[in-house]
Specification:
Blueprint: H1 2-43, H2 51-101
Helix pairs in contact: 1-2
Length: 102
């Protein structure tokens, strides 16, 4: 009874903490970083760009591509984490029901 309820709660929480929250937090941090950069770029916009700003613009595009790829990977990991959480919770809950019938 009680042990199985605690194991269900533990499996659910550990799956969330291990597999769902890390990619979710990384996506949130990347989004915040992108928003801050966009805000900074808008506040310092000038009609003409210096050579240093042109070089930075090129590296910004490369960084945006890298961030986009990271978000894609994090999204895939998030889906796998949600699946792992549902699967672990299902197994633990079915074990809880199976032992409750005895």
């Amino acid at each position: 009874g009680f042990v199985h309820v605690i194991s269900f709660i533990g499996a659910f929480c550990m799956s969330l903490t291990s597999f769902v929250f890390p990619p979710l937090m990384h996506i949130a941090l990347l989004k915040r970083h992108q928003d801050e950069e966009d805000e900074e770029r808008c506040s310092t916009s000038q009609p003409f760009l210096s050579s240093n700003e042109l070089e930075r613009f090129g590296s910004d595009e490369h960084e945006k591509m890298r961030d986009r790829r990271a978000i894609q990977v994090d999204s895939a990991l998030l889906v796998c984490g949600i699946f792992a959480t549902v699967f672990a919770s299902f197994l633990t809950f079915s074990d809880l029901l199976h032992n409750a019938e005895r």
